[in-house]
Write a structure and sequence with these properties.
single chain, about 130 residues, alpha+beta, 4 strands, rod-shaped
C-alpha cells in the first residue's frame, strides 16, 4: 500500500532525477553552442585576413625597383632553362631578408640563392635564380 510518506519520497527522487537530467542536457547544449561559436569566429577571422597573392612575372623593372628599395645595385637579368637569373651587388646583409620577402610576396619562387661577402663588411653580391 502506498502511503503519503512513500509517495512524497518517490516524487522527491523523481524530481531530483529529472532535475539532474535537465541540468546535464543544459550544459551539453551550452558547450556545443560555445564550440560552434568559436568555430564561426575562427572562420570569420580567416576570411577577414585572407590575402590573395597575384603571381607576377619577374621583370627587369620589378627587380630593379625591389633591389633599389633595399639599397642595392641591379646588374643583370637573364633567362635560363631553370628560370630567370638575377645578379645584384652592394646589398646590406640586414636588408636581404626584406628583399627575399618582397620577392616571395609577389608569388615569385626563389630556386637558387647565393650571397657572397668578399669585403667582410656585410655588403653582399647576390646571384639568384627565380621562377
Amino acid at each position: 500500500m502506498i502511503t503519503n510518506r512513500n509517495l512524497n519520497v518517490l516524487l522527491f527522487l523523481l524530481f531530483f532525477i529529472l532535475f539532474y537530467a535537465f541540468l546535464n542536457r543544459y550544459y551539453q547544449l551550452r558547450d556545443n553552442y560555445y564550440r560552434e561559436y568559436l568555430k564561426h569566429k575562427e572562420i570569420m577571422f580567416l576570411i577577414k585576413n585572407y590575402k590573395q597573392n597575384i603571381r607576377q612575372e619577374p621583370s627587369e623593372e620589378l627587380l630593379k625597383s625591389l633591389i633599389s628599395n633595399v639599397g642595392g645595385e641591379f646588374l643583370s637579368l637573364a633567362q635560363r632553362d631553370e628560370g630567370y637569373e638575377v645578379k645584384a651587388r652592394k646589398i646590406a646583409g640586414a636588408k636581404i631578408p626584406k628583399l627575399v620577402y618582397d620577392i616571395e610576396e609577389r608569388g615569385i619562387k626563389i630556386v637558387k640563392f647565393k650571397a657572397v661577402d668578399n669585403t667582410g663588411q656585410g655588403v653582399f653580391d647576390l646571384d639568384m635564380v627565380l621562377r
